[in-house]
Specification:
Blueprint (H helix, E strand, L loop, with lengths): L1 E6 L3 H8 L2 H8 L5 E5 L6 E6 L3 H9 L3 H8 L6 E2 L9
Antiparallel strand pairs: 1-3, 1-4, 2-3
């Protein structure tokens, strides 16, 4: 699992691209799906939990076709993965 965040110009437009064109590109890099949240304090920030390994994510963000997809989706910056610090019961 991987948690990532980014800021976008328009969340609804971003979701259109994220769920179609970007989804296909993520699948090419091994993503098995995602769950998306809107930040409660920053209306232009979204968070996504991906069923994806870190290597696949790194390959996705370095894919030469990805910058155009991010631009079309209205990203204000490149997505950033949160640092994993541990997994705990309960």
């Amino acid at each position: 699992m991987l948690l990532a965040t980014t800021k976008v110009e328009d969340v609804d437009h971003w979701i259109e691209i994220f769920s179609t064109k970007a989804a296909e590109k993520r699948k090419q890099h091994g993503s098995k799906g995602s769950t998306v949240f809107r930040d409660p304090n920053e209306e232009d920030r979204v968070w996504a939990i991906f069923d994806w390994d870190e290597e696949g994510f790194k390959n996705f963000v370095s894919d030469p076709e990805v910058p155009a997809i991010l631009q079309e989706a209205g990203h204000k910056s490149r997505p950033q993965a949160a640092e994993f610090v541990g997994q705990y019961d309960a």
